[in-house]
Amino acid sequence: MTQPSLSLVDSDPAELAVDAIVIGLQDGALLPAPGAESIAAAFDGRLTATLALLGATGAPGEVTKLATLGTVAAPLLVAVGLGDEPAGPAPELETLRRGTGAAVRALAGSATVALALPLPDDEGAPAVLRAVLEGALLGGYRFAGYKTKPQKGRRDPVGALQVHVPDAADAAAAAELVRAEVVARAVRQARDWVNMAPNELRPPHFADLVAAAAGEAGLAVEVLDLDQLKAGGYGGIVAVGQGSEAPPRLVKLTYTPEGVAEPKRVALVGKGITFDTGGVSIKPAAGMWEMKSDMAGAAAVGAAMLAIAALKPGVAVSGYLAIAENMPSGSAYRPGDVITMFNGKRVEVFNTDAEGRMVLGDAMARACADGADYLFETSTLTGGQVISLGKRIAGLMGSAEATELVRTAGDVVGEPAWPMPLPDDVRKGMESEIADICQTNSSLDRAGHMLQGGVFLREFVEPGVEWAHIDIAGPGYHAGEATGYWTKGGTGVPIRTLLQVVETL
Ligand code: BES
Ligand code: MN
Ligand code: ZN
Fold first, then answer.
1. Residue 502: phi, psi to the nearest 5?
2. Residue 380 CB–ligand 1 contact under 6 Å
3. Ligand 3 (ion): which residues have CB within 5 A?
4. The CA-based dihedral angle spanning residues 114, 118, 121, 126, taken in that order and rounded to the nearest 10 degrees
5. Domains of the chain, with CATH numbers?
6. What's the whole-model pTM score?
7. Is the separation of the CB atoms in 278 and 335 below 8 Å?
């Protein structure tokens, strides 16, 4: 898992001896965005007309390549559309992030690439630079895959990126560079885990990989195996995991800040179903392979913890990964089972395909028992999330303060999440005749079924804990062709949100 190397430059972009140079292009007048002045000058007034001839429009994310034929030092110029001329000093951060990602993706095969994008020289500069760096590094991701022979015509991701800034010696800019490398490494790690084939990432192995990476990063690591889960009363994790020959795990990673007396305590919890067949309530065959991504929440939590170990925020953070494989078999849990969860509550199972909430309930209750002021849980929990909010916007439920923290952070980093309610009538619909709660609506009514997930998980949060549930069934995995800084497969959502929240706290 290599990522492009990064450096800052402040010399004339027209004179950079790189394989390609990227500039921004604004809608309408097809004007090169700020940062590209010297390149436009080298074209002697012909750049706009040439780009128009090539069909460029400046639409967000549009990539136009042209040979520079000696006008500037780089032989290839890439103009990336940044949309309308911005009202403020710089384009929208997400437009810039996606545009940079698209440009770097389009330049696969180039060893060295320079970015001459609109980076202002004011208080807003670090945020804009952060967007460009993240877009570039994430757009430059590629999953190594399992091919036994090198593919013809397959071009390697960009090897080195030079980012043109007003002042390459600026300390704030240098700090952004360090942070971007940490954050991008975490996102790439999560994408790699999600993209692995499910036979290559069964629960014990996933737990081992996370534990090894976390140990290297200096985090404290605790891995509970099947015997320990049984003895510890983790009924939900054991029930879901018992249908598979590969036993479940609960991984806890802990970061403790140095020199902070009584830091705020944050828990991150992720759903780690390495493959979700639905179990006995089996899923239809079509598209089932995509359920290899049902551990995207745990991957995000594990990777976020790796970044936290490097960023060293002033709060205490524990990550919990609830890992199991949901399989149908002679030993699988079944509809009708009553399961005693870690916090003692009894759950009547109605549909073994609602396995996420079973493993998460245990992990969240454990996080509360360990002592948490804030609990952020993320999971590919319901198809209902995709139906109601689509593939970009996560579903967000929980207490007022925590959900607002997530929504605001998501907006800043380009991982939108939208607040949804936890209605009383949905809880009423989950009353069980024989246990404390049904795992789904007791008449199997799917109405508002994203909300059922949130309402169920609330039962495993202790009073007084600020909590948010982030349903990433849609945004956790990108099944379509690459777009912006998203490549096909795992996206790494909501790692950057979690990091932003932790840094805010
Ligand atoms: N992992 C799925 C949810 C999912 C669906 C994620 C599509 C990504 C894309 C989850 O375990 C599941 O099966 N949920 C059920 C819940 C139902 C049985 C209450 C669903 O969404 O249908
Ligand atoms: Mn399921
Ligand atoms: Zn699932």
1. -60, -40
2. yes
3. 273, 276, 294, 356
4. -80
5. 5-169 (3.40.220.10), 188-504 (3.40.630.10)
6. 0.97
7. no
